[in-house]
Specification:
single chain; 345 residues; alpha/beta; 8-stranded parallel beta sheet; binds N-carbamoyl-L-aspartate; binds zinc ion
Length: 345
């Protein structure tokens, strides 16, 4: 008999959709599986105000394939100059669900990010007042700090002081990659939650260097050693409501990935749920997939859980070697040309 599991339709709490023709290429992949997604604001230029977020949201809605229901939950990009007024406008808009902190220089398109958190004090205080969640790319940007330590150092130097300074603010520690982050989230107040990607559950850093340099496995924060992957898998499948699904699916053209200076980002939207199912199955925890994928996110964001269901079937299928991307570029997905063992039907 074919093995099937039915779960409440999930949401993606960390997604890069880009814009224009690129947006049109990738959006159907996410909308096939997820009812909602938190849309990252790191466009060029970034989405720093409510008006820009509104027009971006409209372009996303226009790109949704007919017959599919998908609700893009918008975010604002925090800068040194974000005003409390802007935070108020965002909160009043109803469609902006969070504000994103990129330490300047920490990741792709973060150059307009925050250089010094003290400059954001008024905006952060207003967020606390408006009950607007803060999403953080949790790595220090200091190039003198070892790249494998940047998340751990961020916890002690930025996250812990921030939780103390704004005790009423809900914070989501995005795409966590270390046991240090897991332990910190578990021990912190209920105002702290975390997203975990499928690729950080499935791979350790060896995959980036297996038989040569593999740019399609290069993302930020970079994959870590096996002990960290194990800790993430244990956290995601523990049933702890602080951990939620966030793919961080981050498309880049093949050309910009296969380059002397490859962009950071793994593309997983084409098979996100199937990849998570594989990770959960590896620790016999498929019965915990639903809370991680479909309940913990809306509960933390104080949004209703989805009403509809989706079905995953144990079935081998081969991921296409590439997808067309934008006007005339291509995109190499995670597991390109390789087998997957679960399929959403
Ligand atoms: C993301 C991107 O390409 O926008 N890249 C990545 O490696 N994760 C940015 C981010 O989420 O840090
Ligand atoms: Zn990030
Ligand atoms: Zn991201």
């Amino acid at each position: 008999m074919t093995l099937r599991i039915e779960i409440t339709r999930p949401d993606d709490w960390h997604l890069h959709l880009r814009d224009g023709d690129e947006l049109k290429s990738v959006l159907p992949h996410s909308a096939r599986q997820f009812a909602r997604a938190i849309i990252m604001p790191n466009l060029k230029p970034p989405v720093t105000d409510t008006e820009t977020a509104l027009t971006y949201r409209e372009r996303i809605l226009t790109a949704i394939p007919p017959g599919i229901v998908f609700d893009p939950l918008m975010t604002l990009y925090l800068t040194d100059r974000t005003t409390p007024d802007e935070i108020r406008r965002a909160a009043e808009s109803g469609f902006i669900k969070a504000v994103k902190l990129y330490p300047a220089g920490a990741t792709t398109h973060s150059d307009s990010g925050v250089t010094n958190l003290d400059r954001c004090d008024a905006a952060l205080s207003e967020m606390e007042k408006q009950e607007m969640p803060l999403l953080v790319h949790g790595e220090v940007a200091d190039p003198s700090i070892d790249i494998f330590d940047r998340e751990r150092i961020f916890i002690e130097s930025v996250l812990q002081p921030m939780l103390a300074r704004y005790p009423g603010m809900r914070i989501i520690f995005e795409h966590i990659t270390t046991k240090d982050a897991v332990d910190f989230v578990v021990s912190a107040s209920d105002n702290l939650a975390a997203t975990i990607t499928a690729h950080h559950l499935l791979y350790n850093r060896n995959v980036v260097f297996s038989g040569g340099l593999r740019p399609h496995h290069y993302c930020l924060p970079v994959l870590k050693r096996e002990t960290h992957r194990r800790a993430l898998l244990e956290a995601a499948s523990s049933g702890d409501p602080k951990f939620m699904l966030g793919t961080d699916s981050a498309p880049h053209t093949r050309h910009s990935k296969e380059s002397a200076c490859a962009c950071a980002g793994c593309y997983t939207a084409h098979a996100a749920l199937e990849l998570y199912a594989e990770a959960f199955e590896s620790v016999n925890a498929l019965d915990r997939l639903e809370s991680f994928a479909s309940f913990n996110g809306p509960d933390f964001y104080r949004l209703p859980r989805n009403a509809s269901k989706i079905t995953l079937e144990k079935q081998d299928w081969t991921v296409p070697p590439s997808f067309s991307y934008g006007k005339n570029d291509s995109l190499i997905p995670l597991r390109a040309g390789e087998l997957l063992h679960w399929k959403m039907i």
